[in-house]
Sequence to fold (867 residues):
Amino acid sequence: MRALRTVYARELVAYAVSPVAPIFIVIFLVLIGVMTLNVAGLYERGLADLTPFFNYLPWLCMFLVPALAMRLWSEERRTGTGELLLTLPLGIWPVVVGKFLAAWTIAVLAIGLTFPLWITVSVLGDPDHGVILSGYLSIIMVAGAFMAVGASISASTSSQVVAFVLTLLVCLLLSLAGFRPVVSFIDGRVPPGVVEALLDLSVLPRYRAMSASDFSLDDAVYFLSLIGCALGLNVAFVNAGRAG
Amino acid sequence: MPTFLRTLLAVVAFTVLFVGVTLLSTRTLSGVRADLTQTRAHTLSGGALGIVQGLDRPVRLTLFYSSESGSNLPEVVAHVERVRRLLRGLERAAPPGLLIVEEVDPAPFSEEEERAVNAGITQVRQRGGATLYFGLAGSNDVDTVQGIGYLDPALASRLEYDIARVVYLLSQSTKPRVGVLTTLPLDGAEIAGRIRARPWAVRTELARVFELVTIEQDASGLPPGLEALVVLHPKDTPDTLRYAIDQAVLNGLPVVVIVDPNCEIDVPPEAQQNPRLLASNVIASDLPDLLAAWGVSYSRSEVVLDRIHATNVSVRRGSETVELPYVAYLRLGKDALAQGVRALERLESLNIASAGRVEAIDGATTAFTPLVRTSEEADLIESSAIRFSPDPQALLRAYSPDGRAYALAASVTGPAKSAFPRRDQHHRADGTIRATVIADADMFADRFWVRPQRVGGDVVGAVRIADNAELLIGVLAEYVASDALLSIAPRERQVRVFERVQAMRREAQQRSAAEELRLREMVETADRRLGELGAAREGAGSFLLAEQRAEQERVRTMRADAQRRLRDVQYELGREIEALGDRVTLINLVAAPSVVILLAISIALVRRAGRNAERRQQRGGAA
Fold:
C-alpha cells in the first residue's frame, strides 16, 4: 500500500510540474465550454439540466484521456526510467495501479473543473441534482476505463504519439459499438446475437443509462472489469518490455 | 515461452475475461439497481407495488417486441430492457401465479404478428420497410383487454404508471358508474354533417377507469346506480334535470360541476363559417340556483387573468411573429394546487384557458376548500373583453392586480338546503353534499392538454402535456373511494426551466408594454396632427403659414423620435436576457481555465525560485 502511495504521489507531482497536463486540461475545459454553451446552446434552450454537456463529454474524454495516458509508460520506456522504477523493491502491480490512479485523478480533476456549469444551472433554475451527480459519476467511470486502456497501450510502445493514436482508436471502437449509425449499419450483416453482444460491450449505452441516473450493478461490473483487465494487460506489457 | 507469445496469450486471456464477465454480468446482475434522481424516477413506487401485491385474480401481461427491427434503434433497445426489468419487478411482487408476464417476438408474416395486430399493438413502419411492434397487452380471466399500443422510449418516466394502471384496470371486476351530463361534443362531433371527430381524450381516459353513462339534456331524471356525476358546461339545463341533480346531490351523490365564463371550444360546427351565428352563440355556462344552494358564488361574466402563470402565445406584429404572455391562458404548477388533498397529489401541472373564479357565499353552511388557485397577482376582466380576437398586449397593459388569489376550482362539503320548493312527498329539503366546482371547461379539450404522439410521420396516440384529465379522474376516484388508483401517480418528467430567465422575460415584457403604449400613442397623435396640418394646407391653397410649417417639421421630428425609441424598447426587451447569457458563457469559458493556468504558472514560479535558491546555495557552498 505504501509502495502504491509513493508511486501515486510521484506521478501526481510529475503531472503538476509538466506543462502538458495543464495545457490539455485548459483545452478540454474551453472545448467542452464552447460545445455546451455555444454549439448546444445550454442557455438558450432554457432547461435547468446539463444534458448537452453530458452528451458531449464522452467524445471529448476520448481525446483528453489518451493525451494524459500517453506519457504514463512510453516516456519511462524511452528514457529507461521505467527499468529503474521496476528495480526498486515495489513490485509491478503497485507501480501500474499507482500510475493509473494518478492519471485518473488528473482526469477527474479536469472533469471536476467544469463545476461552474453545475452552479450556472442551479442559479438559473432548479435542476435535479441527483441526475447531474449521476452524470459526473458516470463520466468518471468512462474516464477511468479509457485511462486504463490508455495506460496499457502506453506500456506497449515507446512512442507517445503511437500510444495516443492507438488509445484514441480503441476508445473510439469501444464507444462506436453502441453508436446508433454504426449499429444500424452492422445490423442485418451479422447475426442478431452479435449486435446485442456488441451493445453490451460498448461504453456509450451504459454511459447513457448511468448518466440518466439509472445505475445497474452490471454497469459497475462492466467498468471495473474493463479497468481490471486493461491494467492486467498493462502489467503483461511492462513485463514484456522488461524482458524484451 | 518467448516474450511475444506470452504477451499475446495475455492479450487474448484478458480480452476473453473482459468479454465473458461483461456478458455474464449483463445477463445476471442487471436487476440490481440504484436510482439517484430526486423524483426516484427509476424506482418501483409504493403505489404500483400495492396494486400488484393486492391482485386477487390472474392478470396476464404480454410484451410484444420485434427484436429484429428494434435492435437497430439503441433507444428502443434501452427501453425494452427497462420494460422487461419493470415487468420482472412487478411479477416478483405479485402473489405467486397471479401476474403472468410473457414476451412475444412478432416476426414478419408469423402467427405472433397476427397476435400483435389482434391485441391492438401499434405497427410502427421504419425506413427500409420493416415493421416494429413494441407494445404491451394485458388480459384477465374474463378476457378484458387493456394495453399500451406503443411503449414510447420518450415516455420512459411514465412507464411504471402506465403499466400499473393497466394491471389495476384488469384487476377490477366492475368499474364505478359515473353519469355525464354535458353540452359539449365529448363523444366526438359531427363536423359538416359527415365526418365524425374522435371522442375527446378526456373521455377516453375517464372511460378506462369508470363506466360512463351519458345523460341527455332532455332526460327526465338521472339513471339509477350512479356513484358520481359530472356536469360539464351546463347551459339552459331544464328544470326537471336540475331538480333531479339537486335531489341526488342532497341524497349523497358526489358531483363535479364544470362551468366556464368563456368556453372557447364551444363553437357549434354550423357557426364556424358564420360570423353572425358565432357572435350570437352563448359560450358561458352556469348552474346558478344549484351552485348558490351549495354555497358557491360564480360569475359567468368574469374571467381570471394571472400574469405570474401566463403562458406565451405567438402574435403577429407587422411582418414578424413575437412571443407574448397571454394572461388568460395559464400554466399552473404544484404551487397553485392545494396541499394535502389526495385527489391533487398526483398532479404536476394544469393548463387553464380563460377560467372563471369560484368563491364561498357569505354565511354558507358548506365548507369551501379551494383546490386550484391563481397567484396573488391575479386580475379579473369582463369575459366579453377577450371573447373575439383578444390582444395579449392590451390585456397586459390594462392589467391591474388587486393582490388577491382567486380559486379556479374548489370542493364544497357539508350541510346544504335544496334550491327548489317542495314538489312531492319524496322531496328532500336538506342533506350533506359533496361537490367540486371547476370554473374552466376548455381545459378538458384535447388541445389544452394532449399532443398527438408521432412515430415517424404516423400519429400513434396522444402525449399529455398537462394533467388536466388527471384532475377530474383524481376528484372522481376520491369520491368513489378508489384508493389504489389514487396511489399510483404519473410521474411525468418534470420540465425544469431557467426560472430566473423566465421571470426576467416576464418583467421586461411588462415594463416595455407600458412604454410601448405611450410611444405608440405619441406616433398616433403625431400622425393625426400631420393629417390636420395637411388638411389645413389644402384649405389654404397649398400655402402654409411659417408657423404651421415649423409645427409640421416639429411633429415629424417627434414622430421619428418616438418611432426610434419604440424600436429601442423592442430591442431592449431581449437585450437583458442576452446580456445575462453572454455573462454566463464568459464566466464558464474563462473561470476554470484561468484557475488552471494561474496554478500552473504558480507551480512553475515556485519551482524556479526553489531551483535558483538551490543553485545559490551550491555556489555559496563551492565558494
